[in-house]
Amino acid sequence: MVTLKMLAKELNVSISTVSKALNNSEEIGEETVKRVKELAELYNYKPNKVALSLKNNKTKTIGVIIPNILNRFIAKVLFGIETEAAKHGYNIITCISNESLVKEKESLQLLASGSVDGFILSVAEETQINNEIEHFKQIIKQGLPIVMFDRVAHDVMCDKVIVDDFDAIYNATKSLIKEKRKNIAFISNINDLSVGKLRERGYNKAILEQGKQEPLVLKIKKKKDDHQKIIKNFFKENKTIDAIVAADSSSGIIALNTAINFGLKVPKDVSVIAFASKSDSNHTLPKLTTIRQHAKAMGISAAQMLITRMQNLPANPDVKTKIVKTSIVKNKSTL
Amino acid sequence: MVTLKMLAKELNVSISTVSKALNNSEEIGEETVKRVKELAELYNYKPNKVALSLKNNKTKTIGVIIPNILNRFIAKVLFGIETEAAKHGYNIITCISNESLVKEKESLQLLASGSVDGFILSVAEETQINNEIEHFKQIIKQGLPIVMFDRVAHDVMCDKVIVDDFDAIYNATKSLIKEKRKNIAFISNINDLSVGKLRERGYNKAILEQGKQEPLVLKIKKKKDDHQKIIKNFFKENKTIDAIVAADSSSGIIALNTAINFGLKVPKDVSVIAFASKSDSNHTLPKLTTIRQHAKAMGISAAQMLITRMQNLPANPDVKTKIVKTSIVKNKSTL
DNA sequence: TTGAAAGCGCTAACAT
DNA sequence: ATGTTAGCGCTTTCAA
Q1: Chain B contact set for A112 (CB, 8 A)
Q2: Alpha-carbon distance A255 to nearest alpha carbon in chain B (angstroms)
Q3: Are the beta carbons of B228 and A113 separated by less than 8 Å?
Q4: Do B92 and A93 touch (CB under 8 A)?
């Protein structure tokens, strides 16, 4: 890497002259500025980021800790974060906790030693199960702001971006009730997560309000189980199901395909609605009616909130929670 | 952040004494070491990463530039990279080129100014179309190693990790020929990419070798088109299709569902085989027979290659290309 | 056994 | 208009 020192030597001026010239300081003579800039251009000089970070005590880097990059929703949020961060000149360092509390703690610690100016994260499953929050609090005490998205730790005082999970499923279920569905089932693959629980509650509320059926819930334990087989058996044991609300895209897609495989017509015999993305909806036939989470928008919001907070150093104690409303995109799997 | 200076002051010793004590230098007295370490522990002292980077002139950070985080294959490679990097104490800074040449160049430039010790990247579509490679060469000339994966620029001298695209599709097509399929179609959504072209060639070779049918190829222009509709029409216009080879997962999934929707039996009437992941194969019924790319393994390999190269500074001029063999996972969509 | 000083690359207050 | 110096946090050589 070419440094100020090298340029200074070649030009027979001092380092600070070069620095000032490149920063358009009024102090330096026109002629000198020109010479300096030309040489810098020639050598493609770029200020060393690390030196700047040390000097300014800020890195222009955001630490992002996510539980699972293979989750499409999370990947999309990450896309939003990166897009917005880049717009403001920030880079993102990504760590994947892999749903592990230990890895989450480590990553947080490591990045907190000077690598980043703040964090955006979604809480690992293990962390949610154990309800651990001390590591988050400690980081905040160190003066590094955190913005949590989707899976948040409610007891940590920090900015948050979440989805209206409860309302979304409540409304989706109600829309199926309006279709005169009499036996609406709820299928979930994410029942250990905070958001999974909220979604189940939304379903329960809608069903209980209606009062014409008992809640019918299928909870799938991740990984261990053969997702397809479980759902097939569920259909076999509950032949009168005429609608499905799915808390996650896999469950929705598999339920839809299973219904078709059983010779049922979708949506005539069975309606299906699921938390899922646009491309998921294109992967079924008929196209899946989906609850969209606007993942990219969430990422953008999270990044904006963090950047705002990082720029207003005097740690404003009021934290905000932004609820990004979902929307139902009606396709052909519902009436 | 707590610094050596602060510890030194509190202990009434010099900064260098503290530094040495914490680094287990033989020079420092046992008693002092103990005092220093205790205080460091108490204050949860962690050496400042930025200062270390500046001092050592290496950041222990890998720059990863990918065209699209929403591509499941790429996301999986990223997972592999992150896993392996973390194992070796490296962080990853992720930039998303969004298939844009300009963004790719910018990211490369920005990170090259001291933020990272090397790069892992997959070339943007626009870059491949324009066949631009100067920006890569320049980075390498600066002394920063690059490892490319999947979509590589063959004319750049650097380490690469690729898939045996040609052979994979060639073999897949042959396996359909062995099933006595007489009218095998090839569907691709990625025809502008280097890998897409290789896959098409593999298909063509197998078909031409057999000599019993003409190649039947459907190329879908990304984004603009309604993927489902195009494939439906393709089926309508080619009623005798009895097998599909898909260059990408979306095309495979949609083709399978379309066939079923037309009342065809899979795999009795139509076989389908596609480049896709395990979870994709679970999203169809019958389960999709897939060509697996071992994306995570590719990420791990790429990270290993880069780390090796970064540690052997005296830029070894021989570059390696690692070909990660795909494997066909037979499910229920083929005979 | 401990400390002082230099240097990584940069900026900025303070000379000249 | 230009240069000197100090300092960001750390390691390391050299001096005490």
Answers
A1: 46
A2: 9
A3: no
A4: yes
A163, β-bridge pairs: A324
Rounded CA–C1' distance between B201 and C1, in angstroms: 72
Alpha-carbon distance A178 to B21, whole Å? 72
Q: Is A153 helix (H, G, I), strand (E, B) or coil?
A: coil
Provide, rounded to the nearest whole percent, the portion of chain B with pLDDT above 70: 99
| B330 CA vs C15 C1’ separation (Å) | 79
| pLDDT at B317 > cutoff 80 | no
CB spacing of B113 vs A1 below 8 angstroms: yes
Q: How far is B211 from chain A (nearest CA, A)?
A: 33
Tokens 């020079």 locate to B27
Tell me: the pLDDT tens digits for B274-301?
999 998 999 999 999 999 999 999 999 9
Sheet of A184-188, strand order: A216-219, A184-188, A243-246, A271-275, A289-292, A327-329
A26 Cβ within 7 A of any nucleic strand D atom: yes
Q: Which residues of A127-160 are buried (b: 16+ CB within 10 A; e: fewer)?
A: bbeeebeebbeebbeeebbbbbbbbbbeebebbb
CB contact (8 A) between residue A285 and residue B260 = yes
Structural domains of chain B sorted by starting position, each given as residue range(s) with its CATH number in brackets: 4-47 (no CATH), 57-163+296-324 (3.40.50.2300), 165-292 (3.40.50.2300)
How would you classify the pairing of strands B289-292 and B327-329?
A: antiparallel
Whole-structure pTM value = 0.94
Write the secondary structure of B320-334 as one string of H (helix), E (strand) and C (coil).
Answer: CEEEECCEEECCCCC
List chain A residues with pLDDT less than 70. Answer: 223-224, 313-315
Q: Mutate which of B42, B49, B56, B61 to disrupt the A interface (most A C-beta within 10 Å)?
A: B49
Side chain identity, residue B170: Y
CA to C1' distance (Å), from B144 to C13: 36
Q: Which amino acid is present at A214? A: E
Q: What is the pLDDT of residues B180-228, one digit of tens each?
A: 999 999 999 999 999 999 999 999 999 999 999 999 999 998 766 788 9
Looking at the partner chain, which of A76, A103, A282 has a beta carbon nearest the beta carbon of B70?
A76
